[in-house]
Amino acid sequence: MIRTLIADDEPMVRAGVRAVLATDPGIEVVAEAGDGHAAVELALRHRPDVAVLDIRMPGMDGIRAAAEIRRAAPATGVVVLTTFGEDEYILRALGGGAAGFLIKSGEPEELIAGVRAVAEGAAYLSPKVAARVVTHLASTGAGDLAARRGTARERVGALTPRERDVLALIGTGLSNGQIARRLHIVEGTVKAHVSSILARLGVDNRAAAAVVAHEAGIVAAPPERP
Question: What's the Cα-to-Cα distance from 147 to each of 126, 190, 215, rounded to whole Å?
Fold first, then answer.
């Protein structure tokens, strides 16, 4: 059972997220919060597997709450809910250790997939989020899109063929176990590849690596999850 915390300052949004998660018998909502401070407090009290946080909340926003939860309760993975026009917040959340990024207007199945992926230690970027992150990076003084894609391809080119295979699957949101099954290798080998990939790319977490994978254009359509 995946124990989940929901935090959003709008009760109707919380109810909607809870209703979507309730359709999966393997997910249980153990707590709800209306702001970031309460989210951190409840995360420490309940120690959920995943915290689903809205970005804009009063008092402490979802970015600060995500960073605090990751610091105080590192076993809790964080999924951030965002809306279009909040690209800069997504980048801040990425730096704060959030592992999942979902658009509020996305399909309900994406929410369940994101929660499950993060619970399994994977990163999950909604395809729409990934596309916007790549475009936003190119529009904020971080280099034009063509240049960033070229740089990403150069970075990915330094990986071994197997590491590139693993990175492409990280970009689709698969966990280490799912990657191992798909590539027919043991999970320990995948973990070693992931560590090497993060070091070679110079990124701190799987979500940042997934962004590089999307920039480099090596992420295919998400495969069916085992």
Answer: 23, 30, 10
Spatial contact of 63 and 151, defined as CB atoms under 8 Å apart: no
Residue-level pLDDT, tens digit, the chain, 226 residues: 999 999 999 999 999 999 999 999 999 999 999 999 999 999 999 999 999 999 888 888 888 999 899 899 999 999 988 775 556 666 677 666 778 888 887 788 889 988 998 998 887 877 666 666 666 555 554 445 566 678 888 889 999 999 999 999 988 878 888 899 999 999 999 999 999 999 999 887 787 788 888 888 888 655 444 4
Please give the full DSSP string across 112-128, using - where no structure is assigned: HHHHHHHHTT--EE-HH
What stretch of H or E contains 149? helix 145-157
Q: Is the pTM of this model over 0.85?
A: no
Q: Are the C-beta atoms of 70 and 53 separated by less than 8 Å?
A: no
What tokens appear for 39 in the block?
């989210």
Q: Residue-wise over 27-47: b if at least 16 C-beta within 10 A, else e?
A: bebbbbbbbbbbbbebbeebe
> Phi and psi (nearest 5°) for 9?
-80, -5
User: Which amino acid is it at 127?
Assistant: P
Coil vs helix vs strand at 69: helix
